[in-house]
Fold:
Amino acid sequence: MTPPTALLTGASRGLGRALAGALSARGWRLVVDGRDPGRLATAVAGLADPGLVTAIAGDVADPAHRTALAAAVPDRLDLFVANASALGPSPLPPLAELPADAFEQVLRVNTVAPLALLQLVLPALRRAGGRVLLISSDAAVEAYAGWGGYGASKAALDQLAAVLAVELPELRVHAVDPGDMRTGMHQAAYPGEDISDRPDPATVVPALLRLVTGDLPSGRYRAAELAPVEAGR
Structure:
């Protein structure tokens, strides 16, 4: 039996790495990326079956990299997870001081790239009746000082998910807010602060698996509200 296939961006660290580990343990074939080749190779080596993994280092904001990822996807794609994200300047500046070029880069990574990559792999998703997970944030719906650029990019991503769900009823399209996590990105948002009280990204994975393997309809979800699924494919 052919294993299900997932395309997962930002898989070399944090939530992406944790989700890749869970899918690999369940026998999934993976196409993954990350900006740091060495970190990506280390992450892949730690997976249950590295032989079922195609790893391509690069930046999702680069059209050539997106083309390479899409080319690595087989004829059928069961899951697309847009997890790669850019925070912007660290420490986080107020919107009145956010450089326009920095904001544009955040939008390229967090909003434009997920849609552009989805467009490339849509035929394979349609053939599989697949699922789409766009990793959002509570900053998309809450007004946090300093988080305006990042939050705006994720709010736009939420709207993309909502419209895609209407336009592509044959797929399940989810935007999901994972909540605060102990990640490098969160540390960059609060340089010099102790964030050890934040949950490990692995604690969010059971909620994501509920969206991957369950029967929830398309929509926006908070990980904290999702009950985990039992172990299995």
